[in-house]
Amino acid sequence: MKDHKAQSKWKSKLHEVIYEADTPAGKLFDLLLFVLIIFSVVLVMLESIKEFDDKHHATLFALEWVITILFSLEYIARLISIKKPLNYALSFYGIIDFLSTIPLYLSYIFAGSQVLLAVRAFRLLRIFRILKLVKFIGEASQLQAALKASRTKIAVFIYVVLILSVILGTLMYIVEGDESGFTSIPRSIYWTIVTLTTVGYGDIAPQTNLGQFLATVIMILGYGIIAVPTGIVTAEFTRHKQDGESNDESTTVHVNTQACPNCSVESHRDDAAHCYNCGHPL
């Protein structure tokens, strides 16, 4: 009985460190994890530089093994510190954690799987777990609300841009034809989108006077089109910022990063006694 209680207490403490960023231990863990993720991605980049890798291969290889082992231990700790490890393993972050851990092991098991080592760059996605704390900052919350409120307007805008791209691309195909590289309507639409977004790869260019005039119109439209979604989001952000400043602070519901030990759901209210998702005591 005592062993069971001791084990439960140990798992509870481990869960607090790994999953709850509001605690001092949790903040320190997230900081160390953040540094480790950045370091591991820099390591992947350095390994891709042939001259550097040839000179420091042994050191890079040893460091990668150290990082892989640390990530493996962290992944195992996440599994054993919750009551339903399968839920975590099948979650978005669980899959990312798993994918960022196994490439080095697979390179030894399967021949020719060295290409999987590049998957280690996916470790950057793990930073999102740490940066979820941003949503508790007022400005970020207002930006999130502004983006959410703008999504319908932006969706309609993108739909209009796509229609415009199809029409203009078709016109360019008719005006220029195969001789100028506009060999099909889809390829002409590709050129139109590249021009509208002011990317301008230069792999295709209009040759006729009419085509060049049409290209000029598309370029001018592009500058205006880029500004539209920015204006939509800015207007919504300003409105939400003003609304936020006018709200009484006492009516604000505060949430924290406390994670449920049963289902790992976060963002509970400060005064919550049970998980809002599964009802487990917090």
Automatic annotation (TrEMBL):
Specify whether Nucleotide-binding is a keyword of the entry. Answer: no
Tell me which Gene3D superfamilies the record gives.
1.10.287.70, Voltage-gated potassium channels. Chain C
Entry's Gene Ontology molecular function annotations? voltage-gated potassium channel activity
Q: Does the keyword Lipoprotein apply?
A: no
Location relative to the cell:
Membrane
Pfam families per UniProt: Ion_trans
Q: Which UniProt keywords apply?
A: Ion channel, Ion transport, Membrane, Potassium, Potassium channel, Potassium transport, Transmembrane, Transmembrane helix, Transport, Voltage-gated channel
> What are the TM regions of this chain, as residue ranges?
28-46, 58-82, 102-122, 154-175, 213-233
Q: Which residues form the Ion transport domain?
A: 27-243
Q: How is this protein situated with respect to the membrane? A: Multi-pass membrane protein
UniProt xrefs under InterPro entries: Ion_trans_dom, VG_K_chnl, Volt_channel_dom_sf
Q: Name one GO biological process term.
A: action potential
Question: What protein am I looking at?
Answer: Ion transporter
